Amino acid sequence: MEREYMEFDVVIVGAGPAGLSAACRLKQKAAEAGKEISVCVVEKGSEVGAHILSGAVFEPRALNELFPDWKELGAPLNTPVTRDDIYVLRSGETSTKVPDFFVPKTMHNEGNYIISLGNLCRWLAQQAENLGVEIYPGFAAQEALIDENGVVRGILTGDMGVDREGQPKEGMYTPGMELRGKYTLFAEGCRGHIGKQLIKQFNLDSDADAQHYGIGLKEIWEIDPAKHQPGLVVHTAGWPLDIMSNENTGGSFLYHLENNQVVVGLIVDLSYANTYLSPFDEFQRLKHHPVLKQYLEGGKRVSYGARAICKGGLNSLPKMVFKGGALIGCDLGTLNFAKIKGSHTAMKSGMLAADAVADSLFAGSEGADELKSYVDSFKASWLYEELFASRNFGPAMHKFGPIIGAGFNWMDQNIFGGKLPFTLHDTKPDYACLKLAKDCVKIDYPKPDGKLSFDKLSSVFISGTNHEEEQPCHLKLTDPSIPLSRNLPLYDEPAQRYCPAGVYEVITQEDGEKRFQINAQNCVHCKTCDIKDPAQNITWVTPEAVSYTHLTLPTNREV
Which fold has domain 5-69+118-209+314-389? Predict the structure, then answer.
């Protein structure tokens, strides 16, 4: 099939912090050199920022470098952090506040801001367009274009107007376009599906530990103004997850933004062992704890979403480059788990890659080479220094559990400054940590009350993700028989519980036979199924087209 194509110097996949920072930096470098670099950014959301889980504590270090005058330019950093409250939840009713002295340095947030990351991305996109970047929202990258020499030459966008069977719809079918670039930067976010393919195809992770993930479930609430404390950061560890054990761990957060809004969420480590654990239901019952309930009670839930989080850190970074391109941001896995922050690290990785690309283009490169200068500059940067200092954080939590792991990390960060003369490793993939159903205790989750806790379907309804039912399923089973033949008898089919949107169901039919059903239109794109399935039988790919308003905070314009 003949497809239309467009050619650019650089194609960037994903308009998040990494992709937009790379785009801006490329244009800045071109302007400084008095040369031209054509840059195209594709974004699968209907608008920039639409597929960002808004509500984050943001460290402005990279932004200070990219736009030193960001305050004058109106960057939406409006709520400085005023206080950090950290609690260990011992039960559903009790808690202990951790004194500041015993909090690892990485968890202190002086000088940071509580922001809508979606709004920041929209602002970055505006700066990029002002610099001459072409941004195309509503275009999902389907696959990388790789030539016969193994050089990445751009991407192919997905076909539009295709029915459930993959056949073109009459009068609606539009084939995808080739977007060709001398260099292609992949900034798809955590577990990006093309990034995943490239890692496998080019064996980029051969020298890395297994990547580790959490699932972050998040809601935005409008709360009683009397309870609102702009700039307050609350973190918890422990209940409803394990406190001493290392098998089912995670922690929560509650951030007070402006306009009487808070963002509340739970991160569950996807290394959890109990097959009956449901991250969604853990989050719902968490909100009834007095530490969180005191702020939420009487408020209104505005939005819901969930997303996988890369937390393997430095030990899990794959090779960053291949012929014709590079991985940046969470496609690479640069989040600093010790800080629970990944936006500033994503931005810096994008800026470093952009510098390398610009220098290569200025030297006359046509893009068939590996960007070794990106790797070299990364190893000489504060980004590497920061990730190196935090390299033991995740493995310590996995090995020792929340309490002992936290003690180890306090010593590592506060006493040794992240420079202990050894490195802990965690090489067991998250999916392999799941225990058999016969070895697990079932969890009796309370019914939602409709005030603080809710069911999955009403949550999906306010997630802002809208798929057409009549399009191909973007959740692919390598072997359709495995859910019922293997996962059901061994693990009581955990996809029924780890999915935070009720996508996967085991249906008992009238004749008593069971059927595995995929409600793909419910998907909120957390990618947990791609990660946690014990048979590694599910592959998440971008859908044909999705309308997103995903967890974006109200702005002064219509979204």
Answer: FAD/NAD(P)-binding domain (3.50.50)
